[in-house]
């Protein structure tokens, strides 16, 4: 007998699981599929079999817990966290926003990690050979935990666009990579932030892997003039939504 | 009376790209920036349990190595308990074990490794026990959304035969793609776990990936 389609037996839900709730299923239409031939690397790096869906167990509804003591005081300041003999060159910006779940609840203590190219579009990485110059005072990575309201903030240099080998004249829009570790393993998410008004956005084959316009819009950070720091830094706002835990409305009996 | 909650769409995933190491493993990218770096060693001297090494490679649809892949693991401690408040099983927490680690494959050899302990059995919501397993997630250039899989241990024959998740895989032949091979090398227990993202023309067996 196969177990595939059997939900957890009625009455068998352990209080361990309901105490923190299950996560709703992932809406696959909100995400890129694995195979997106316009983004060529995906052709040989996408499974041919369908993903297998399981009822979540403790393994999926738990996840690593991070504490402020693990982070350094400059970890969320990319303008100074690699500065050696001066400040990095480029547009000074603050980026902030809220991490919430699908039901609008703040995700507290989420680890948000970011990485990016410098103002020239050059990455500090062994494998990046682009002729855009490295900036000796810019590393390009940072990290932070969300506060009790799910809020995060960091300061950086706005990254430049970047050429890459997909088709021969392909250019990424300016972007900042994001990695978010929320409260449960199922919330683990890696994505990219883009900037309002960038004319490269509609042409990018990586962005076009996302099937809906509204989902693409959700990756575009908006200029936040109210939060700009006068004579210092512009500001962008970028909110993130993670999978949500469902409440249990009725006893499972 | 029930209440319908407003539901927002999850933020869409994007590939981690080829330079994922800059943010998640900056030393591997080639520079020092953080005082405290997250890595692939999950054990401390006081950690309880049998020391094991996990090692393997990740292959694409031509059988070529993914040398730029980033892998994270999440597992229970030796008693089968997760270091997270949602785990209310009546089992001991190990203060010297977080259960999480990350690493990049080696840029030359494509090999990834973790130094960890063999996890205990964790309860399944239906009341059965799950066989010992480690959750893995893969991010890389060309992967639009993180690929989730599970590592099981080939020598846990009885537990694997009863595991609800393995048994949920209708194609019995695919279950073996999740079982790591045990070797003893210079007295050290090594589990080899290769991951094949896509079936290859020569009949390579694609690893099972989960929608969790």
From TrEMBL, chain A:
It comes from Aquabacterium olei. GO terms for biological process: 3,4-dihydroxybenzoate catabolic process. It comes from the Bacteria. Belongs to the intradiol ring-cleavage dioxygenase family. Pfam families: Dioxygenase_C, PCDO_beta_N. The keyword Calcium does not apply. GO terms for molecular function: ferric iron binding; protocatechuate 3,4-dioxygenase activity. Keywords: Dioxygenase, Oxidoreductase. PROSITE patterns: INTRADIOL_DIOXYGENAS (PS00083). This is Protocatechuate 3,4-dioxygenase subunit beta. Residues 95-123 form the Intradiol ring-cleavage dioxygenases domain. The gene is pcaH.
From TrEMBL, chain B:
Residues 54-82 form the Intradiol ring-cleavage dioxygenases domain. SUPFAM superfamilies: Aromatic compound dioxygenase (SSF49482). The keyword Ribosomal protein does not apply. Keywords: Dioxygenase, Oxidoreductase. It holds the Pfam family Dioxygenase_C. Belongs to the intradiol ring-cleavage dioxygenase family. PANTHER family: DIOXYGENASE, PUTATIVE (AFU_ORTHOLOGUE AFUA_2G02910)-RELATED, PROTOCATECHUATE 3,4-DIOXYGENASE ALPHA CHAIN. This is Protocatechuate 3,4-dioxygenase subunit alpha. It comes from Aquabacterium olei. The lineage of its organism: Bacteria, Pseudomonadati, Pseudomonadota, Betaproteobacteria, Burkholderiales.
């Amino acid at each position: 007998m196969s177990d595939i389609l059997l939900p957890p037996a009625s009455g068998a839900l352990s209080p361990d699981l309901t105490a923190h709730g299950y996560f709703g299923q992932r809406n696959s239409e909100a995400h890129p599929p694995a195979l997106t031939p316009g983004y060529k690397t995906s052709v040989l790096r996408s499974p041919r079999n369908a993903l297998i869906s399981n009822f979540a167990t403790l393994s999926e509804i738990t996840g690593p817990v991070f504490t402020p003591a693990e982070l350094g005081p400059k970890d969320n300041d990319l303008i100074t966290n690699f500065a050696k003999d001066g400040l990095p060159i480029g547009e000074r910006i603050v980026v902030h926003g809220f991490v919430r779940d699908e039901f609008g609840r703040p995700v507290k203590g989420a680890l948000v990690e970011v990485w990016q190219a410098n103002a020239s579009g050059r990455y500090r990485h062994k494998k990046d050979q682009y002729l855009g110059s490295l900036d000796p005072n810019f590393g390009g990575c940072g990290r932070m935990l969300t506060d009790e309201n799910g809020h995060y903030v960091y300061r950086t240099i706005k990254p430049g666009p970047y050429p890459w080998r997909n088709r021969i004249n392909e250019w990424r829009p300016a972007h900042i990579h994001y990695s978010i570790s929320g409260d449960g393993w199922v919330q683990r998410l890696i994505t990219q932030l883009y900037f309002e008004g960038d004319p490269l956005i509609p042409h990018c084959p990586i962005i076009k892997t996302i099937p809906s316009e509204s989902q693409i819009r959700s990756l575009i950070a908006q200029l936040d003039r109210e939060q700009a720091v006068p004579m210092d830094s512009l500001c962008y706002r970028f909110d993130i939504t993670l999978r949500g835990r469902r409440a249990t409305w009725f006893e499972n009996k | 009376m029930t209440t319908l909650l407003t539901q927002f769409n999850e933020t869409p995933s994007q590939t981690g790209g080829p330079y994922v190491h800059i943010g998640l493993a900056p030393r591997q990218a080639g520079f020092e920036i953080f005082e405290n770096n997250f890595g692939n060693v999950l054990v401390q001297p006081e950690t309880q349990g049998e020391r094991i090494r996990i090692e393997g490679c990740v292959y694409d649809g031509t059988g070529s190595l993914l040398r730029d892949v980033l892998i994270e693991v999440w597992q229970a401690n030796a008693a089968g308990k997760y270091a997270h408040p949602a785990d209310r099983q009546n089992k001991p927490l190990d203060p010297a074990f977080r259960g999480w680690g990350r690493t990049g494959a080696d840029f030359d050899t494509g090999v990834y490794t973790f130094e960890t302990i063999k996890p205990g059995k964790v309860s399944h919501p239906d009341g059965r026990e799950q066989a010992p397993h480690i959750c893995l997630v893969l991010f890389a250039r060309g992967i639009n959304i993180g690929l989730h899989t599970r590592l099981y241990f080939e020598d846990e024959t009885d537990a694997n035969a009863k595991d609800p998740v393995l048994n949920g895989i209708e194609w019995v032949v695919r279950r073996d793609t999740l079982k790591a091979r045990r070797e003893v090398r210079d007295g050290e227990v090594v589990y080899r776990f290769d991951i094949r993202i896509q079936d290859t023309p020569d009949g390579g067996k694609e690893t099972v990936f989960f929608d969790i």
